[in-house]
Amino acid sequence: MAELNIDAVAGPAWGGGVAPFATNTKKLGMWLFLLSDSLTFSTAILAYAYVRLSSANWPRPFEIYPAIANATFLTFILLSSSLTMVMAVAAAHRNEVKKAVIYILLTAVGGIAFVGLHMMEWFRLFAEGVTPWSNKWGDPLFGGTFFGLTGLHMLHVSIGVIYLCIIATGFGRRKFNADHVEVSGLYWHFVDLVWMFIFPMVYLMSVNLKS
Amino acid sequence: MSTHGTSTIEAHHGPTNKLFIWVWVWLCVLTGIEVLLAYLRLDPHPMLVLLVGLSLIKSALIVAYFMHLRFEKIGLFLVIVPSLVFCLVMILIFVFPDSLRIVHLHP
Which of A86, A119, A145, B59 has the fewest CB atoms within 10 Å, counting from its CB? Predict the structure, then answer.
């Protein structure tokens, strides 16, 4: 089947034409999904801010070491995985299949490392008596909102890792093309973007001032 | 399913790996500044403003360069960004006054 040359039918910026966004349906669909998902995360972050503002007994439990150091390392992992992902997309568009697959798998490894380190932090908090239902440091909603927000993000990262593995396999076997890699990249960068808000709002704003 | 290699968006000539690495460096630097702010233990209000500002800059860099929105047609940008901003403003308008009212009820 012949490929549609999007740019040839796009027309001027305000003219509409056959393809007014000059993009394929997969990418437009992913952008619209990310738009809705960003509202989900925005609502979750705003709910966190709401209960925090409303609480007179909100804890600031995170020490610079190990909690903030660990969260900073998680941020570095996600940023680096975004870099490998964008290089995977560039390699895929250059039709460098092997290089693109390696970059995608490196990105997935970054995602696995992120989930593993984050789970270790969760278990450390469980051991200290903070769970989704209780919090020994003060307001019990701290546990609920913290685990709810970071858990929702971790779920997205985990789904992203599975998605990337499927894309790497399909692209390596020539069943997917560069557009599929680019669309999966959009999802991965979005997961990275969301963490850029969770990290400061949840961790940096909760640094223990007395330590 | 389309055949391999014939991407419909090969017109992306703009971004290079060098540019992506620079964006990554800037994102790391901005993250370092955020952590430094936490280490300095500023008052909550200026800290919140600075952190939200830095997060917005970082997210703009990710969307513009890593997600390629800077290199797409303006129509796609106009579909996505204004609608997101509108929804967020509506949430803020209807939720936060109530939250702040509760703060003032604390003894």
Answer: A119
Confidence at residue A47, expressed as pLDDT on a 0 to 100 scale: 87
- DSSP 8-state code for residue A4: P
Q: Hey, how many other C-beta atoms are within 10 angstroms of the C-beta on A150?
A: 20
Mean pLDDT calculated for residue range A5-31: 69
- pLDDT of A21-64, one tens digit each? 767 889 999 999 999 999 999 999 988 988 888 887 888 888 88
Strand partners, A62: A207
- Partner residue facing A177 (CB), from B4, B16, B73: B4
- Best CA proximity match to B9, nearest among A8, A155, A69: A8
B84 touches chain A (CB under 8 A): yes
Residue A139, phi-psi category: left (phi > 0), alpha (psi -120 to 50), beta (remainder) = beta
Q: Give Dmax over CA atoms of chain A in angstroms.
A: 66
Which of B31, B9, B27 shows the shortest CA–CA distance to B66? B27
Contacts for A179 with CB less than 8 Å, ≥ 6 apart: A24, A26, A27, B2, B7, B8, B9
The CA R_g of chain A, rounded to the nearest whole Å, is: 20
What are the start-end ranges of the E strands in B30-78?
none
Q: What is the ipTM, given to two decimal places?
A: 0.88
Q: Tell me the average pLDDT across A2-17.
A: 55
What is the amino acid identity at position B91? I
Q: Compute the distance between CA of residue A20 and CA of residue A7 in angstroms, rounded to an integer.
A: 10
Give Cβ neighbours of residue A74 (< 8 Å, ≥ 6 apart): A114, A117, A118, A195, A199
What pTM was estimated for this model as a whole? 0.87
CB contact under 8 A, B9 and A27: yes
Q: Is B81 on the interface with A (CB under 8 A)?
A: no
Contact list in A for residue B28 (CB cut-off 8 A) is: 76, 79
